[in-house]
Records
---
Amino acid sequence: MGPLESVRVLELASVLAGPLAGTALAERGAHVTKVERPPHGDVTRSWKTKHEDAENTSSAYYEGANGEKEVVWQDLATAAGQAWLEQALASHDVLIENFKRSDLSKFNLEPEDLAARHPHLVRVRLVGFDDAPERLAYDVVVQAETGFMGMNGFEDRPPVRMPVALMDVLASHQIRMAALEGLLARAGGKHSYFAEVSLEGSGITALVNQATNQLVNGHTPVRNGGQHPNIAPYGDVLACADGHVVLAVGNDRQFEGLCRVLNIPELATDERFASNQQRVIHRDALVVDLNRAASDWHKAALEKALREVGTPAGVVRALDEVFEESDHPWTVQNPSGARRTRAVAYRVQYLG
């Protein structure tokens, strides 16, 4: 049980953003009813890697987005499905959906009509693009058109997509926030709450410092791997004897600690590296010197030594290392038996 145990959520959404938002609300106690169209259901049930059993009814991808929900199989295009849906809308508090706008009338889900019939309902819908809501918007397309792919990778190679569907993940946070905002508004006497979340808007608003670098300074980011445009060495990777360590040096004191640990204290007083801006300007030369000094270190030993002097760094881990513990605390087991990462990344205590 959780703080949302009295909340009923109707999920008419597929793929990732909507289902992940529903899973997050379920983890906080909400009863989530996920509607899937027979016979195949959510398309992600079939999104299997070459290593998965073709006979399984759901993929690892599907399991990753869908937690403890009540799955109802209904064809909403039929008269029986329409009757079921109308009853469900009356008995649920929140509706999450990602239908195309042109399909809303087919399911009697036009915003004004639905608000008139069910003013209690908090409705959150997902679209791909704000100005072209009918356009198909898979995550990689939105990554491309919001600038993420244009910044990701290396300048002498083609742009690279993020290794997770980041636009969907970002949008799922917007969806759950809108749902909770709508419930608060309803508790305050306001009704017929309707929010529209777009993958495009979720991506654009997550550009943060990269956006202001462009808007304030006219600086268009280039593809430079993981390097931070404002800080150095930050995002720079050191090749150790047995793997890699990434640096996150945010100030001069941390840089001095890095130089001491690597036994190159003279770099901290070198005028090329004496301030953050100078380190950004002379980054290429700096990274060469740092890698030379780190080459004989073992990655765990270097991270430990840097931690002891207060210089942020991390060992670059593969996922089998991340999930080495079978019951990792940020994973949970689905009713199907599959393990997935949690959708909610905070812990709660009631201290009063």
---
Amino acid sequence: MTVTGEIPASQMGVTLSHEHILVDFIGADSISPDRYNREDVVKRVLPYLEALKQYNVNTFVDGTPQFLGRDPELLKELSEKTGMNFITNTGWYAAGNYKYLPQEAFDLSAEEIAARWIDEAKNGIGDTGIKPGFIKIGVNDPMTEMDVKIVKAACITHLATGLTIMSHTGLAGPAFSQLKILDEYGVAPSAFIWTHAMIEPKMDKILTAADMGTWIGFDNLTPEYKMVSRMLDLLKYFKAARRLDRVLISQDAGWYSPGESNGGDFREYSTIFDTLMILLDRGGYTMDEINQILVTNPENAFTIRVRKLQKQTDKTSD
């Protein structure tokens, strides 16, 4: 589901699975679209998107949730100007010690929160008519009752809509805590993207989650040597384990920052292509393996379908 309507997953093509156009960290109690001019954002961001055309990028998954600057109409305008697919989200972000949660989140039940998200999925976001293509949440470490409630709401929403859950997670502790909640709700790990898994130092823990069927987001790549080296090590480890089929790569890059001069510093979206892909080619990765990571995996991860946990006797790979 893109901001301009539904497309077959097979039309996603080369996909950046976790990036940002605009993020506003002012907090849920102060955020407002009046804090920026949409025309200024388009002018600033458009050249970075146009630069992706040389790499045949066709789909841009925007990870900015509600109360952090989500603007589906901005994404639609950018989609129309570039010809790229843009995917937005529903969901709430508890990470950051709840700064980006509305006050009502503390009073609502998981079921009541899920009802809000389900309504967006079925009827569109506000009066825009634009529907989300996934659920974006974020949790703290350690997780609290509020985090648990947000994850439960995501599970309920997934079962009602088939939208994949992308969770700002980081370390293995909260990742497996969330997978346990999914299990309690009968939701398969293949409905869950462990975002920023690169942060977890123990690769065997990440692989364990992948073996369960979890989508693994190596999605905060930066141009720095340390991060590029880390990405290469992770991909090498997963390739040896024959688990590249659960990997999503992206850069968590961008973005226009309201309140800062000209939107502040902007990190371009090209590190995967002008650095990582060159190194993977030198490292002997085949085109099939690269296509798996950049095309096939996002296509499977963001396909809208309910993914229920199957009984052990008939469990199959997603």
---
Amino acid sequence: MGKIFSTKDRPVHLGSFPLEKLRRVDQAPGLDDLKPAAPITFSRPENPHSIVNAMAEYMGMLDTVRVGNMNPQLAKCPDDPAERSRHLKAFAYFTNASMAGTCSLDADDALSEPYRNPEINHLAHRLRTEQTKTLAAGMDVIMADLKASMDLEVTGVDEHSHALVIAFAHPRDPRPDEPGSEWIRDAQAQRSALRANECASVLTNYLRLLGHKARSHSVTSSEVCLNRLAVKAGIAIASDGEAHSPLCPQGMGLAVVTTDFALEPDRPLDPAQSFPVQAPGFEDRNFVDSEHPFETLRRVDEPTTFIDEPRVARVPKRADMFARAQFGDLGPNIQKAATNGKFVRQAPTSWAQRRVMSALALIQNGDPASEQQAGYDDPERNAALVKAAAYWLGADAVGISRCPEWSYYSHDARGEEIVPYHDQAISVVVDQGFDTMEGASGDDWISCAQSMRAYLRYALIGGVLAG
């Protein structure tokens, strides 16, 4: 989505909305009249073509990992609540949140009737009983932690004192005659809720790694009122019993992290002021075309890099560099850094992302539906559907190509032979971001977190597309 102004020289914890310039009040008008938002459903049995159906399992897995084991050792971090708030907001904006705000957590913020995602039970069973087929470093440690956390009891949040509220703004609504828009119609609420829950799940795990209690809350699983906390945190205003974002009139999706990690609360917005409105993005372009002018690039029939296809060797998964590092092919020092995913685990930011990504990896493979849906005989229309959905979900570049046999590994992580099974490929690119790369040295924490952020985003987008 477009920005009101450039963030090149703007502190990362402020984000792209000018929230710091808005007038605040001590008590939010209409707060006590707010109605709790009803949980959102991710099921459209009457419309099997809707992408909402494919989102359901991924939203469910994010809700499944909302609880977890806490690091028994408390990490060193600033005692200043203001600095803590800035840090968490910066992390939220790093994961592409539109807005982030903090507030205190009071007894009135709890729901009288908490709601729970119906997908959790069967996904928790899968986490307990299934094993991923991968050589990814540290996966065994993460899966053991995920399995153990499935037996934790989900209680109230009485011991939590503060909340971080995360908002993802809706893109514009697809136009009725827009190419490739059939899958993504009437799905704005689910799309933004999914993206917000991804961010909240990572930040929740991050706080637990620091040794603090934390839990994420979404539009499908929550013990607190998201609308009420959004108003208290200065992200929304209360009007006629509903929470509205004056900065995003097209709507937004919410998620919340509650924690015992003390934060500096933001003050509520004064509704009696004018608000700058941010363009939702894609206002002058179709979703299928992306926000980048790829159509202006020169195209050729064959890659300009020569590929000697008959002689390209298929190698086993064991031959990739991450696997070779773990097996000691690159020497003992590299092997030590790869053991249990140390190169990821040494920074809580990247390890927090990796845990969520590993949970999603369990549901990335699946069997096709027993009955093939009609209406997909036109390759050009099919390509438009895929591209529009990917860009709408947040991809930065999407391309479709053939998938020749030589592009497959010869054997998987278990040593079993891979027989090429698809002849076409959808390639999705997630930009690692200008903002953090400017300050990275290549061997600091942000470099690994940049990669994990992009991997996690693709796991979500690619998984939903495959579903």
---
Amino acid sequence: MALSTETRALGAANPKLGVIFSKLVHDLKYQAPQHPNTRPALEAAMLEYAATSGAPYESEYAQRYFDVGLTLACAYYPTHPFAVKLHIAIYSWLAIYIDDDDAGNDDLAGFQERFHKGEPQPSALLSRFAEVLHDMSKYYEPLVANFIVCSTLQFVNATLLERRGEFHGLKHCKEASGWPDYVRDRSGVPEAYAYFIFPKEQCPNIGQYMQGIPDMMTYINYANDILSFHKETLAGETDNYINTRAVCEQREPLAVLETVVAEAIEANSRVVGLLRTRSDPMYALKWDEFFNGYIFFHLSAKRYKLHVYPGLAHEGVKELVDEGVSGLAEAVKGLEEFGGQRAGDMEKPAVGVLQCA
């Protein structure tokens, strides 16, 4: 199904999109987060690690990936133990680089086999990434660490798949309506980022939160898809989740977007309801920090171009950044740099995953 004239003609600030975005933020009861500023200390620790890692971090593009890993760790997981936050930041930086490193495709194709066999990786980037995965059980309960690793290996599969000619030759259709979610659950790494919310030091009882993981994954995927839609439309992208699902369901993209907003709100509501029944309030607190930080990340980054919707500013984002009342205001500096592209390139999702697409 071709995109409608209405959808193709979306301008800098489309009123219908403004209503949709405002509904998401309002119905989620989003509150701009306020936490101590740990970015400088985390950045120093990441730089110390990077300097001896051999992984690329000094080029213009590598620095963007580095900054996003740093910023999302601060935004999503503000009160995690420092070592855990550092581990997530390094993981995210390396994963984003891998996702965008088309030149390393041949090396990446053998990553999983070498990882399972314990064999050396052919590059510093992949070696450090393998080490990060092997060390995951230092910070997460062993079973949870396994889920995170499995989710990450699925991300590697999705990255390789998206570079295959067969993938680009697929024709979306209603008979394959489950395909968009199948790909999204792998390329976006939502399971890993959901489990990252609950480090074993602070959240040792996996029974308190495990039943909520599927809805957390839905929220992580859909909130990103919704808040990325404006900039993707401006860039002329038609292979994103919303448009692909629209083709499969034979509906207009804006109608699908409204449905996805409702599904994201419902998923969050179920997570909140579940965690509020738990005896330990820490689990609900961790989710609250994450879901607010996740929205903040998207509303604050210039990459998403959401500043053209003044209705979002009253939710506290503009005031937070202007007044610097939170450590995240400093973190936004890194986000503001995450938007430039290679000359002549169309915007490419930086890990559809890593939920900063």
